[in-house]
């Protein structure tokens, strides 16, 4: 049934894909951004991908909201049936003060949920992250992290971003359990999201492919991530909105773990004539460089570690057939070469 969905952070890489899925499915979308100046950019990104481009005029509206400000939430959310909360700061580098990330993420999630409660909304979908799942010791004998696992924010090497996502998700579950039992919450926990962006404002995750495509580093550290395609993540948000039986659960969004070397090799295979670094740096060299370079220091906890997650719940209960990780890498690379001129 078509409903009015309030989508926070609508200008984001993932949220634009979510908006597209919601509009194509017949829903009306009210999106929030900190700057209404971005309305033209957003509509321009969506229009070419819509079956009926007129929809951006008829069923899409924007409002200004900031995660760090109380003003406006209840009014903005009034009249909506569903809240999809994706907005959260996701910078490439970690700030000096952890609170710069944690406060907007956690307080923002609380503001969004309080606004939903005040507006009488009983259905909420939250974009958390697999980083709220994976930073803890895996129980012995368990092959992969799943939705029962929770990041321990005191675990060594947990970054400010990882804490911000974990604490924001915990705050959301606490809020619905303690203060708003009438709200049905579904949480999506994506791993590194790749694939083709809708426009040139493509956020942080695609910059992993961008960096390798630019051959910025003489060698690659032995690190990697599980990867998921942005259209699959958006489809999961749509199914969470439409399927009441997903309420009360977390859903990991993931296809397969790829090392940086695998990502580089997928790009090299797509663009054989291009200089793409596929050689791995010995761990010892990375550790030595980390003494001088704080950016390199942040990768040390992941060095040489393969961490798998299971998205069996999303496959079994939501019926998601995940795009192969290497294909997601290729789609990002093709976008960057063909649309961003890299
Ligand atoms: P983007 O950075 O592309 O989008 C995030 C959006 O959040 C921005 O467009 C911005 O909108 C909004 N935002 C940021 N800070 C604030 C603030 N203080 N107040 C209001 N809005 C704010 O990120 P992604 O699309 O990559 O990520 C979207 C969500 O998915 C985030 O919650 C992220 O943590 C999560 N996620 C992302 C993954 C990935 O690999 N990309 C993996 C797992 C989870 P505006 O500037 O218009 O206000």
Summarize the structure.
The protein is an alpha/beta fold. The protein has helices at 13-24, 39-46, 55-58, 73-77, 99-118, 160-179, 207-213, 230-242, 260-270, 283-290, 294-297, 312-318, 325-338; strands at 4-8, 28-33, 60-64, 82-85, 123-127, 184-190, 192-194, 224-229, 250-253, 256-259. The protein contains 13 helices and ten strands.
Give an overview in words.
By secondary structure, the protein is of the alpha/beta class. The protein has one domain: Rossmann fold (3-Layer(aba) Sandwich). The protein has helices at residues 13-24, 39-46, 55-58, 73-77, 99-118, 160-179, 207-213, 230-242, 260-270, 283-290, 294-297, 312-318, 325-338, and strands at residues 4-8, 28-33, 60-64, 82-85, 123-127, 184-190, 192-194, 224-229, 250-253, 256-259. The longest helix is centred in the N-terminal third of the chain and has 20 residues, at 99-118. The radius of gyration is 20 Å and the shape is globular. The model has no long low-confidence stretch (mean pLDDT 96). Residues 9, 11-15, 33-35, 38, 66-68, 86-90, 104, 127, 129, 165, 190, 192-193, 203-205 line the site of NADPH dihydro-nicotinamide-adenine-dinucleotide phosphate. NADPH dihydro-nicotinamide-adenine-dinucleotide phosphate is lined by residues 9, 11-15, 33-35, 38, 66-68, 86-90, 104, 127, 129, 165, 190, 192-193, 203-205.
Label the overall shape.
Answer: globular
- How many runs of DSSP E, i.e. beta strands? 10
Q: Provide the residue-averaged pLDDT.
A: 96
Q: Beta fraction of the residues?
A: 5-15%
Question: Mind telling me the CATH class?
Answer: Alpha Beta
CATH superfamily: NAD(P)-binding Rossmann-like Domain
Biggest beta sheet attributes: 7 strands, parallel
> Which segments are poorly predicted (pLDDT under 50) over 5 or more consecutive residues?
none
Order of helices and strands: EHEHHEHEHEHEEHEHEEHHHHH
Structural class by helix and strand composition:
alpha/beta
CATH architecture: 3-Layer(aba) Sandwich
The tally of helices reads 13
Q: What's the gyration radius in Å?
A: 20 Å
CA(first)-CA(last) distance: 42 Å
Spatial arrangement of strands, main beta sheet: 3-2-1-4-5-6-9
Give the names of the bound compounds. Answer: NADPH dihydro-nicotinamide-adenine-dinucleotide phosphate
Number of domains: 1
Look up the CATH topology: Rossmann fold
């Amino acid at each position: 049934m078509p409903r009015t969905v309030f989508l926070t952070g609508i200008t984001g890489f993932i949220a634009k894909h979510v908006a597209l899925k919601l509009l194509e499915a017949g829903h009306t979308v009210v999106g929030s951004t900190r700057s209404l100046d971005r309305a033209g950019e957003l509509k321009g990104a969506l229009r070419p991908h819509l079956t009926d481009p007129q929809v951006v005029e008829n069923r899409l509206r924007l409002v200004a909201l900031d995660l760090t400000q109380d003003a406006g939430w209840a009014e903005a959310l009034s009249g909506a049936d569903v809240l999809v909360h994706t907005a959260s700061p996701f910078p490439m580098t970690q700030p000096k003060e952890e609170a710069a990330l944690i406060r907007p993420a956690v307080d923002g999630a609380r503001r969004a949920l309080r606004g939903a409660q005040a507006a009488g909304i009983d259905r909420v979908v939250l974009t958390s992250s697999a980083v709220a799942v994976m930073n803890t010791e895996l129980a012995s004998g368990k092959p992969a992290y799943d939705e029962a696992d929770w990041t321990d924010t005191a675990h060594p090497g947990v970054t400010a971003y990882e804490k911000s996502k974990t604490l924001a998700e915990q705050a959301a579950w606490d809020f619905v359990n303690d203060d708003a039992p009438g709200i049905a919450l579904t949480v999506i926990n994506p791993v590194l999201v790749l694939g083709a962006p809708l426009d040139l404002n493509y956020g942080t995750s695609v910059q992993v492919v961008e960096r390798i495509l630019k051959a910025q580093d003489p060698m690659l550290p032995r690190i990697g991530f599980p990867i998921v395609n942005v259209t699959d993540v958006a489809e999961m948000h749509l199914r969470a909105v439409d399927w009441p039986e997903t309420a009360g659960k977390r859903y990991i969004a993931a296809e397969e773990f790829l090392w940086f070397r695998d990502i580089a090799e997928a790009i090299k295979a797509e663009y054989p004539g291009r200089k793409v670094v596929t050689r791995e740096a010995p761990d010892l060299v990375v550790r030595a460089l980390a003494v001088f370079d704080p950016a390199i220091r942040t990768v040390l906890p992941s060095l040489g570690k393969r961490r798998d997650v299971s998205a069996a719940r999303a496959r079994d209960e939501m019926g998601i057939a995940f795009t192969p990780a290497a294909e997601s890498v290729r789609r990002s690379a093709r976008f960057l070469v063909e649309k961003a001129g890299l």
